[in-house]
From TrEMBL:
It comes from Nocardia tengchongensis. PANTHER family: ENVELOPE BIOGENESIS FACTOR ELYC, INNER MEMBRANE PROTEIN, PROBABLE PERMEASE. InterPro entries: Cell_Envelope_Assoc, DUF218, Rossmann-like_a/b/a_fold. It comes from the Bacteria. This is YdcF family protein. Residues 17-143 form the DUF218 domain. The lineage of its organism: Bacteria, Bacillati, Actinomycetota, Actinomycetes, Mycobacteriales.
Length: 157
C-alpha cells in the first residue's frame, strides 16, 4: 500500500508476521467464540498489512481438525490469500506455539511479530515468544470485540 505523504509503521511490512494463537476447538472441530475473536483481530491485521505473512498456530485436533487448520480455512474463505497463511499445526501449549512459530518465522524470513491472543493470555504469551527469540513489535487482544460479529471483508455480502 503506497499512500502519498504517509509512512506506514515498520510493523506493516512483509518481514513482520501476524501470529494468531489458537484456542481449543469444540469436539466437532468448530471454533469457540474466544478463538473467533482472536481470528477476527488477525483478519483485520491482515487487511491492514496486505504484505505480511500470517501464522496461525495451534494443534490439539478435534474431529480431525487442528486449531491452525480451522483458522487458515476461515481466513481463506474470507479472502486472505492462502499463500500468505502459514499453519503451525503441532503446538499443544503456548511454549510450543512460540517455539514452532519462531522456527516458521525463520523459514519464511520474518524477523518480528504482531502477537494476537486474549487479554488474560497476553502476558504469558509475550514472555514465551520473547524467550523463543521472537521480537514482538505489537500485541493485540480482541477481548472487547463483540463475539457475535457478523462476517465481513472481501467477498462477504
Amino acid at each position: 500500500m503506497d499512500l502519498p505523504g504517509l509512512d506506514l509503521p515498520a510493523l506493516f511490512t512483509p518481514e513482520t508476521a501476524i501470529v494468531v494463537l489458537g484456542y481449543g476447538l469444540l469436539p466437532d472441530g468448530q471454533m469457540r467464540p474466544e478463538l473467533m475473536a482472536r481470528l477476527y483481530a488477525g483478519y483485520v491485521s491482515a487487511l491492514l498489512s496486505p504484505q505480511a505473512p500470517v501464522i496461525v498456530t495451534g494443534g490439539n485436533p478435534q474431529n480431525g481438525v487442528t486449531e491452525a487448520d480451522a483458522m487458515a480455512d476461515w481466513l481463506v474463505d474470507h479472502g486472505i490469500d492462502r499463500n500468505r497463511i502459514h499453519a503451525e499445526t503441532k503446538a499443544n501449549s503456548t511454549v510450543q506455539n512460540a517455539a514452532f512459530s519462531a522456527h516458521l518465522m525463520d523459514v519464511i524470513g520474518a524477523h518480528a511479530a504482531i502477537l494476537i491472543t486474549s487479554a488474560d493470555h497476553i502476558a504469558r504469551a509475550l514472555t514465551n515468544f520473547r524467550a523463543a527469540g521472537i521480537s514482538v513489535v505489537a500485541t493485540l487482544t480482541p477481548d472487547s470485540a463483540p463475539l457475535s460479529a457478523q462476517p465481513f471483508g472481501p467477498g462477504v455480502r
